[in-house]
Write a structure and sequence with these properties.
CATH architecture: 2-Layer Sandwich
Strand order of the largest sheet: 2-3-1-4
GO molecular function: monooxygenase activity
Organism: Photobacterium chitinilyticum
Strand content: 35-45%
Keywords: Monooxygenase, Oxidoreductase
Pfam families: ABM (PF03992)
InterPro entries: ABM_dom (IPR007138), AI-2_Isomerase_LsrG (IPR050744), Dimeric_a/b-barrel (IPR011008)
Helix content: 25-40%
Number of strands: 4
Length: about 100
Amino acid sequence: MSTLTIVAKVEAKSDKVELVKAELLKLIAPTRKEAGCIQYDLHQDNSNPAEFVFYENWESRELWQTHMNNDHLKAYMEATDGAVANFTLNEMSQIA
């Protein structure tokens, strides 16, 4: 089975950028220690600081699903409730 790549885009509301950024940064250390996490990198758009992208690689979809149910992700969801304008997530497979 191939590696699962996740591209998750988070757009913060204009008045909540620093809150969302701080909460996203809290996810990095615990997630990188999780079973199956190969890569978990957070990016912020250079021209629109309200846009963030996580680029992730996981050993399997099952291990990523475990990540999605972890307490630190639940805490992020609670802390940023109402602060995110848009969220998109793509599950991808490398083809070349």
